[in-house]
Design goal:
Helix content is 23%, strand content 22%. The chain is α+β, with helices and mostly antiparallel strands. The protein has one domain: Jelly Rolls. The strands form 3 sheets. Strands 1, 2, 3, 4, 6, 11, 13 and 14 form an 8-stranded antiparallel sheet that branches. A hairpin with a 2-residue loop joins β8 and β9. The longest helix is centred in the N-terminal third of the chain and has 17 residues. The chain is globular.
Length: 296
């Protein structure tokens, strides 16, 4: 699927744009499922296991920040990850044995859908090595007005910046951090069906959606199978115990098989502790910790 030049670009810059990652038929079905899920949120009046609600949400105007774990809400999301061109990109970059960490469908509503402050995914879930990435599959066209993903090239090869504020993990960097070079940011826009890829250590964020159009991006966060999570993150897996962890691992295999010999690499790690007042989502983590916004 990927050319050698694309692989080199990803290795050097920590991000990539892949056009036509799904077929028109696959895109149409993904959109249909997504809009049905959004419509079903009209009866929901507080965030729950499926929906994170945005300000102004109501039965007449559903406004969400996120649909949680879409691959568990409808099996077609899992099929796209495991049996499409998306799968080919995954294997090109991480090898034949891969697992999913999480998925999410960020649904920035028109007219001010919530920003995601600048952060590195690695700060949330450090592993024994950093062969982890995130796909961002665009379900609608994304342009500069509706809150596109922005990345800073090369930061996947640099330090893990502080994601702390007011003595707790904030899930976002201080925009005044001297290592934050915002002027180097690259904005990733594209047509529906395009897919961004970013390395787990790449610094990224996205502004509010100030357009009159929805911004729907389906995110899959995946790992090479020999990357094992480090205790201390907020992931549910640390609460499972050995037997349930093993069963859960079988369910998270995307391609190949689980690996029982974790690969340890000398990668920089900062643990996401102490926890913030509310860590039920990245939005709540960033808000409850009181980190200064880069988009204010």
């Amino acid at each position: 699927m990927l050319t050698d030049e694309q692989k080199r670009f990803y290795a050097e810059n920590g991000y990539l744009m892949v056009e036509d990652a799904v077929t028109p038929e696959q895109l149409a079905r993904l959109r249909d499922i997504t809009y049905r899920l959004i419509d079903a949120s009209r009866t929901v009046d507080e965030s729950n296991a499926v929906y994170d609600l945005d300000r102004g949400h109501g039965p007449d105007s559903p406004r969400l920040t996120r649909i949680k774990l879409p691959h568990k809400q409808d099996p077609y999301f899992w099929e796209i990850l495991t049996n499409s061109a998306v799968t080919e990109v995954l294997n090109d970059l991480l090898g034949s044995d891969t697992t999913i960490i999480t998925s999410k469908l960020n649904t920035k509503a028109p007219g001010g859908g919530a920003a995601v402050e600048w952060h590195q995914d690695w700060a949330f879930y450090p592993h024994t090595n950093d062969d982890l990435l995130a796909f961002g599959l665009m379900l609608e066209d994304v342009d500069a007005a509706n809150g596109p993903l922005m990345v800073i090239p090369g930061t996947h090869r640099g330090p893990v910046l502080s994601h702390e504020a007011n003595g707790v993990f904030a899930g976002a960097i201080d925009p005044d951090d001297p290592l934050f070079e915002k002027d180097r940011a690259v904005t990733l826009t594209g047509k529906a069906g395009s897919m961004t890829v970013h390395h787990c250590r790449t610094l990224h964020g996205s502004a509010p959606n100030v357009s009159d159009r929805a911004r729907l991006i389906l995110f899959y966060e995946c790992a090479r199978a020999d990357a094992w999570p480090i205790l201390g993150a907020s992931s549910y897996i640390h609460e499972l115990g050995q037997r349930r962890f093993w069963q859960d691992l079988q369910d998270r295999v995307v391609t190949g098989r689980p690996c029982l010999t974790p690969r340890l690499e000398p990668v920089p790690v900062r643990m996401p502790l102490p926890p913030p007042p509310d860590n039920t989502s990245i939005f709540k983590t960033q808000q409850s910790a009181g980190q200064k916004s880069a988009f204010a």
